[in-house]
Design goal:
about 270 residues; alpha/beta; TIM Barrel; two-stranded antiparallel sheet
């Protein structure tokens, strides 16, 4: 089964889920998170992909946490994949990273700030891995068709786009839900329900967020037809080494997914 087929494998036509920590902080933490989410998704018929960045290249400050070492973190992602028999996704930041990361993961993710970098997109496409392109906060939904076409022109039809909010002033983001059906015309479309609630450019040099609105953003995304949901989660977001301000606390995930599944079934029945 290809990754594309797996994402659409829900017998109840449920959404799929990309979820995990912002960055791999250690093996036990990654295994615990995957071990919590995988059985919940199995029960709800949600195709699940474990998410974890092996390195965070885009940080506000030089002293911000970036990772535990590239190969070490990639080996942890591989162990999650093999232990739970689920696909895994990670970000890449340069063309050289594509071939390094591809053997360990099933999906290569292009960060929003890099979504127009042609060399990076082509390198990701040529690995043969599924490519998830996050929509730049500065781009229209329609313009993402060109990024998707770069992947296809490189010989890879396994591609998705992710809505993660648009810049709204200097310190906020807003989701234009009209973009989801627009992007679905040319690619599988995912809604990132945690980064969409980021509040960037804070005076302290650490990005803020509104995790209290995660379910609001998610419900609206399911209602307008998002194919999948992306979220970052952690057992204790207050101690997370990256993006803790907009993460969902892990013990809140099960109830959220149950409610979103109920909503998806209602949408399917219309």
């Amino acid at each position: 089964m290809t990754t594309s087929e797996y994402l659409k494998s829900s017998e109840s036509n449920n959404f799929f889920l990309l979820a995990g920590p912002c960055v791999i902080e250690g093996e036990q933490m990654a295994m615990d998170i995957a071990g919590t989410i995988a059985p919940i998704c199995k029960e709800l018929d949600i195709p699940y992909v474990f998410k974890g960045s092996y390195r965070k290249a885009n940080r506000s400050r030089l002293d911000s946490f970036t990772g535990i070492g590239d190969i070490h973190a990639l080996e942890i992602l591989k162990k999650v994949r093999e232990t739970f028999n689920i696909p895994v996704v990670t970000d890449i930041h340069t063309p050289q990273e594509a071939n390094m990361a591809a053997p360990y993961v099933d999906i290569l993710q292009i960060p929003a700030f890099l979504c127009r970098q042609t060399d990076l997109l082509i390198a990701a496409a040529r690995t043969g891995r599924f490519v998830n392109i996050k929509k730049g906060q500065f781009l229209s939904p329609e313009s993402m068709a060109f990024a998707v076409q770069k992947i296809r022109d490189a010989g890879n039809d396994q591609v998705a786009v992710t809505e993660r909010g648009s810049t709204f002033g200097y310190q906020d983001l807003i989701v234009d839900y009209r973009g989801i059906p627009e992007m679905r015309k040319f690619a599988t479309t995912i809604l990132d329900i945690t980064h969409s609630l980021q509040q960037p450019n804070q005076a302290v040099g650490v990005t803020g967020g509104r995790p209290d609105l995660i379910e609001t953003i998610a419900r609206a995304g399911i209602a307008v037809g998002a194919d999948g949901i992306f979220l970052e989660t952690h057992p204790d977001p207050s101690t997370a080494k990256s993006d803790g301000a907009n993460m969902l606390k892990l013990d809140m995930l099960s109830d959220l997914l149950k409610r979103l599944t109920s909503l998806r079934m209602a949408v399917n029945s219309l």
